[in-house]
Specification:
Elements lengths: L1 E8 L3 H8 L2 H7 L3 E6 L4 E10 L2 E12 L6 E9 L5 E13 L2 E13 L7 H25 L2
Antiparallel strand pairs: 1-7, 2-3, 3-4, 4-5, 5-6, 6-7
Length: about 150
Amino acid sequence: MELSEEITIPAKLEKVYKGLNDITILKECIPGCEELIKHSETGLEAIVVLKIGPVKARFSGEVELNTDGAPDSYSLHGKGNGGAAGHAKGGADVTLEDAGSQTILRYTAKAQIGGKIAQLGSRLIMGTAKKLAGSFFSKFAEIVDQDA
């Protein structure tokens, strides 16, 4: 599964980049996030409860960041396990473009899933993924704009 999107965030690039690396902001923006722990500058652990169609599961996962292109770009890769509901692994490449008082954020995310959630069908999973990403970025833009 692959998902790409472009979002305009009403804040300067430096502020957007800082927000994307702030675990307090991320925890508030990630739908269903119960816990987000920063283990190192590049390593995070998360516990997230999600409902995908009829399947509701608590996923625990690890995410590794690559900030070599900071602050204009970075990537992340991770894997998560939802017990009987299934598992997922994937990553995303993110670029930030300075647009004056705004920032254009572009991302491409890829994921592989298995278990019960994989049996739900790609249309349902893709729809849920788009909804979750939209929810994340709407909340993120709102929080970053408030902190302006």
